Amino acid sequence: MTPMREVYWNIPGHLFLYLLLFPFLVVWLYGIYRHTRMILAGEPAAVEGSLWDRFKGVVQYAVWQQRIAQDPLSGLLHRSISWGFIVLFIATCLVALQDYLGIPTLRGPFYLYFMSLTVDLFGLTAIGGVLIALARRYGLQPDRLLQPRIAKSYGILLVLLLIILVTGFLIEGLRIAASADPWGQWSPGGRLASALFRGTDQAHQMFLHGILWWFHAAMAFTFIAILPYGMGMHFTSAAANVLMKNREGSGVLRPIDLERAERFGAGAINQLTWKDLLDLEACTECGRCQAACPAWATGKPLTPKGVIIDLRDHMRLVADGEESRKMVGEVITHDVLWACTTCGACHQECPVFIEPIPKIVEMRRHLVMEEADFPETMQAALRSLEERGHPFRGATASRTDWARGLDVKTVAANGTPEILYWVGCAAAFDERNQQVAAAFATLLQRAGVDFAILGEEERCTGDPARRIGNEYLFQTLARENIATLNGYGIKKIVTACPHGFNTLKNEYPKLGGNYEVVHHTQLLAELVQEGRLRLQKPIDGVASFHDPCYLGRHNGVYDPPRQLLSAIPGLAVKEMDRCREQGFCCGAGGGLMWFEEKIGKRVSWERTEEALALGPQVLASACPFCLIMFEDALKVKDAIGRTRPLDVAELMAQSVD
User: Fold this and answer.
1) Is residue 203 classed as helix, strand or coil in its secondary structure?
2) Predicted local distance difference test score (pLDDT) of residue 151
3) Which residues form the 4Fe-4S ferredoxin-type domain (predicted)?
4) Residue 454 near residue 482, CB atoms below 8 Å
């Protein structure tokens, strides 16, 4: 006996189904059109990378849901729902293929193994996923979901999907019971549902089956129709956002064509790019970005989720002609914009690659370059950049004072070296970081590295200006530096500043500056591995390493500094709870080194307290700005005597033979 079942059993007028579908399809198409029109109202955006790589990304992050699964419970419920939905949709299409093309999808082993057993198992799994999602959203909510902005439409969609799934199994159960289907045992969900109707006669079973079948179809069409309205748009826009995700690093900002630009930054919603607007539609308000944000954790008004959904709501109101508020200053307040450290935690955490930082920087550019409305301390830093080539106003040192007595060569006097040491503004003008520069230069000399510095010819890379929002000043400084570097034929650069590292490595190439750029911990790790530096003198105690955001999260450099610390005899390394990809910012990034935190707790205090809980003798870092922040925080916490903030290079200089 061949396994099979009749197509559209007990539904003689099933062709009416397509007439029923038409109005729902029109509503769905209008919703898609409306959202597409809103998104395409944005400015042009470049889509780089091969289409094949982008499709692989969709499989990895939209289908397999790799980032979502980093939270096991979220991964379970999302995979259960989405994979169940996909398998059930495929099964529905296969039924239609048999009905209209005669392809025998409901016959033979394929019918038993896939159309019955596999489809039922995925359907049951989807029910479990929906129940978990409802409990998580409206029952035992994590803190990141405890916000009143969560869309009600999400709950409506979940309940509607649950109704569709449950009625589907009831219909199958009624068919198995009424037809005494000999293959019913291959459908575990339907077999279970059929037990509910054992005491009902066949006529009633067939009547209930027909009623439920049409109700189920109407609910399925309703679900499809309302997807583009409210939270349901996430289902399609999230996959599209993964497909179109930014292929550059999270620490790379979009340049402005200063010669052709008619305005600077974004002061209105349609002045953001279409990719920015697609980001807004892809957000499901899961709050992972918010939970990782150092500004939110320390009582600031900024939450990356809040920025995205405020902009999304603003976009929709503008499209409907119902919005009169200014985007910058009213929808997104100044306090929100100047709380962002651009640490990249929100980019790291988002399952669908939404990027709040470019939107925040575009709004900062509008304030700085169009309205000249930004904090006075930042204005003073930018004035110093314009006049003196560095942001440390009041500094009296020259760019080479730190090297006095060390016999450090300059490129102008000695020619092009194998490696240019880019000292950076902090190491040149901050007294504490001058010690780091001296320690690093001594290590390079000890290892026999052919290096030199630019000395007075070096200027700030422009990172603070760009993150604060003055793109014109950034490009002015960058082009001056590039002209100097190219003039000397520089090929390889090492720097101890992650901000300079990121800018030189990732942002200068777009302006004509292409160099091999390494961080000082990477070069030092190579020298130790080659035996050119030997760490032999013990340093007894415990060290905890802080990951600089622009070294770790933005550029993926986590292991070299840890390898160096682990190689120092006697030094035990203890990791903070928030480390590596989940590291916590020091508070200095995004130009906030030159901003006075007046709202909430200082970010540097929060991070320092986390380190002090481990009882370390050394709070190690690999960034001059982190070192400055920790020096101040440890003084405030009255811990400077028992815990020393040191750069990795300083520890190595103490241990090297």
Assistant:
1) helix
2) 52
3) 274-303, 330-359
4) no
Question: DSSP character for 358?
Answer: H
**DSSP per-residue string spanning 83-113:** HHHHHHHHHHHHHHHHHHH---TTBHHHIII
The domain spans of the chain are 72-226, 269-370, 412-657
529: β partners: none
Q: By CB neighbour count within 10 A (0-12 exposed, 13-18 middle, 19+ buried), where does 638 fall? A: exposed
Angstrom distance (rounded) from CA 45 to CA 68: 26
What is the rounded CA–CA span in Å between residue 538 and residue 654? 9
Paired residues of 328 in beta bridges: 332
The closest of 517, 81, 595 to 335, measured between CA atoms, is 595
User: Is the dihedral angle over the CA atoms 50, 51, 54, 55 positive or is it negative?
Assistant: negative
Q: Which residues make beta-bridge pairs with 107?
A: 4
Q: Compute CA 390 distance to the chain's CA centroid, rounded to the nearest angstrom.
A: 31
Which of 363, 360, 368, 393 minimizes the C-alpha distance to 594?
A: 393
Kind plus residue range of the DSSP H or E element containing 560: helix 559-567
Tens digits of residue pLDDT in 612-629: 999 999 999 999 999 999
The residue type of 366 is H
In terms of Cβ atoms closer than 10 Å to its own Cβ (0-12, 13-18, 19+), residue 532 is middle
Cα–Cα dist 593/582, whole Å:
21
Give the pair of three-digit tokens for residue 390: 């560095």
Q: Specify the residue for token string 């996923």.
A: 129
Contacting residues for 603 by C-beta, under 8 A, at least 6 apart: 294, 295, 298, 341, 585, 586, 587, 597
Give the chain's mean pLDDT: 93
Mean pLDDT of 101-106: 86
**Residues in the chain, total:** 657
CATH number of 269-370: 1.10.1060.10
Contact 217, 147 (CB under 8 A): no
Q: Which of 626, 623, 619 is nearest to 646 (CA)?
A: 619
